[in-house]
Amino acid sequence: MTGRTKYTAVRIETEIEKNREEANWAKVIDLATSLKDKSPDCEFLADFLVGEGRLESYLEEWPPIESNIHKAKLGLMDARKYLNAAANDMGKKAGVALDAYLLLGKLYYACGNYNEGLKSFKLAELHTLSEKKLPLRSLKIVAESYAIKGLCLQKDSSGVTSKYKKAEKEEEMYKCFELASDLTLLYMQELDKQQSATFTNTGTHSPQPPAVNKNLSPVLEQALQQAPVMLIQQNKFVETLDRYRASLSAVECQTTNVVRLKLMCQFAEFLLQGSVAENYKSPLNSPPHPNSFWKPKHYNGINQFIPKVDCEETILVLLVAEAMAVRNAVLSQSPEFKEARLSAYQDAASVYDLLTLATVRWGQVSLLQESLERAMKFSFEEPHLWRQHALSLISMGRYEHALVVLKEVIKLEQNSSVNCLLAAKICYEHLNRPFDGTEFSLQAKTKELAYSSGLLGRCHLYVGIGYHLQARAAMLKQPKEEYNEKALTNFQTSVELEPNDHLCKYYLGLQLALTGHIPEALATVSEALALQPENSSTLHLLTLLLSANRKHEEALEVVEAAIEEYPDSLNLMYVRAHLELHEEGGERALVTAKQMLELWKNLYEGQTSSDIPECDRKSDTRSVFQLYTSEMSDKDSSSLQAHSIAASRVEQALSEVASSVSSFSPRPGPQRSYMLLLEVWLLLAELYLAVDQPADVLKCIQEASQIFPLSHHILHMRGLLHMHKQEWTDAKLFFQNAVAINPQHVKSLQQLGLVYHYLGLQGLAETTLREAAKIDPSNHITWYNLGKVLESLGEFETASSSMATALTVETTSPILPFSSVPLCFD
């Protein structure tokens, strides 16, 4: 009979161990009670098991966090009674006292009694435990004990009386968290292994293993994250690096998925903060992982990518994190998956935000854009990632696509004006769509009036920019005046709303200058400079205003001072070249133009031979050359500017045709850089023409033709060269071709009218010059040439009026037209 009782006890104990591993605590308590009844010798074991079962089942429902402390003090009284009963000398003989003390430490932590918890761990002699292979349940208990001891030390402020004691305590805390981290990872690996073995033994035909129903407990998750944080607090950055790597290179298992993702994000943040800096060392140089019973298994194998610098490791970690986040994404839009979908999205959004910081910092925007493209499939109606996607597309130069994405963001955030302003900026700056830009700006103003976010002044500014650009594009006098009036009104309103915004005053000054109010414009631009003294566009505008006021020497001083501040600004150097041509002659201007050519080589030549996408390249330039040459400063301005994109497309199409029927082939590389070079060559040609060196003019034109052979600017320059040689027929042909490509090119119309005059075709000359005057009535050269033509026709009164208009206009004409000042949004 005794043998049968013993057999029954063994069977019950085996059943208890199985249920402990499976965390089936209700069954454990029932079996422990049965064991106590059938085998009185197992009383202390049974007490321990009941106490353990009640503690764990309670904590599954009410995790050990601060908000549950008050509830735990009442809810865990029964569990504490049973565990205390097992934590004595008799419990030691039964072999359960050690585990009872460890679980009491956990119980006291849950109740907020941190000092008692530390005493329990001391009684268990936790610090003296030797490393040996442990059963699965014991492994978890020891892991949690080290984690909770570290947390209790963190919470308990007693006993710290000196700096030495504090350092000693911090070292002990870190040691606890480090051991807890390793044991946690090892426990999860062993759990996965057991689950896989169970799956194999069942012989099921299911293609997938059963889902792991174990969740990482809050204390273990906290320990994993707290270990590197402790090192950061102690300024041990190299050790932090090794700790993160040790945790993240452990063989992955299902249960650690969520915490691994969090660790990766924290590791990426740590690297992005630059704390390691010069002390960074490649993982290749990291200490090897020691073999130990309490260390998790780590990945090791051949053909692994080893980052050499911190930026490589940061992006590598974030790309792995992204792969995990995308894998965990919930695509179903069903209401029952809402919480899971939101949680997965938030994890992914954190990864993408960090990836944005990393890729933009190191010029890898194309990589970011690819990642965000993948994120769209689980970002339904989530405006944050859609906006990030739009911004990445803008950085890539894919403005049409970016605008489409932004329209979706505008639908998702119906009360936000910022997205409308961003869409307007793209229309103005890159897409030559001032009407669409104005519409977006008006939408932004409407939203801002209904749901204010402090951007009403900026909305009026953007509306004004839209009307300003529409006025430039208008062909008829009445609509042009209406648009100019609307632009001026909105700029004035923006200044009233935002008196300290330099951009508002900059655009008001520009609009006043364009409408001929030079003194008022000077005063407004001076106010803008007082608010932002180093803005290059405002300095550019001030230079032109001074030249319009016939203060060329002062204008030259301003632009030279501005170039000292922006030594790589081709735009400002271009203005200086024209002022030097006016004040000091062509030879001095040629020196500046040659410096521009040298500067282009330094800033852009390396880009033209690089395979890196243009948007991902970096240069030291602080102010981009906006390409407003004297030929480009009319209505068309520059082929890279928004309001001349149509002409540029015609030129490009013609050049492609030319390449198919001749030996010309477009240069490979970034077209923007080559267009900058084109304008520098054309400036040199213009200056060589001014100093009567036609051979050098021809060489410059040939260099420019290698870049963009059928540009109307090049054709115009060829016409000027033939005019210089008095080859009127050839000059007429080139000017006609330039006008055919871009009918709005005022400079070509002016010169074509003059050529007709020299050829005796006075009727054609008058018609052509009147057309130029319609496009730009403020150009004194057009009126002067028209006066000459009318005089030859015998219309002396009209000719005199035209000459008088030329004199009047010239008194307020800058060295380059005000339309040459670039759009500015910073």
From TrEMBL:
Cross-referenced InterPro entries: Endocytosis_PI4K-reg_protein (IPR051722), TPR-like_helical_dom_sf (IPR011990), TPR_rpt (IPR019734), TTC7_N (IPR045819)
Annotated Tetratricopeptide repeat protein 7 N-terminal domain residues: 1-372
SUPFAM superfamilies documented for this protein: TPR-like
Domain of life assignment: Eukaryota
Xref: Gene3D superfamilies: Tetratricopeptide repeat domain
Family listed: Belongs to the YPP1 family.
Function: Involved in endocytosis.
Name of this protein: Tetratricopeptide repeat protein 7B
Protein species of origin: Nicrophorus vespilloides
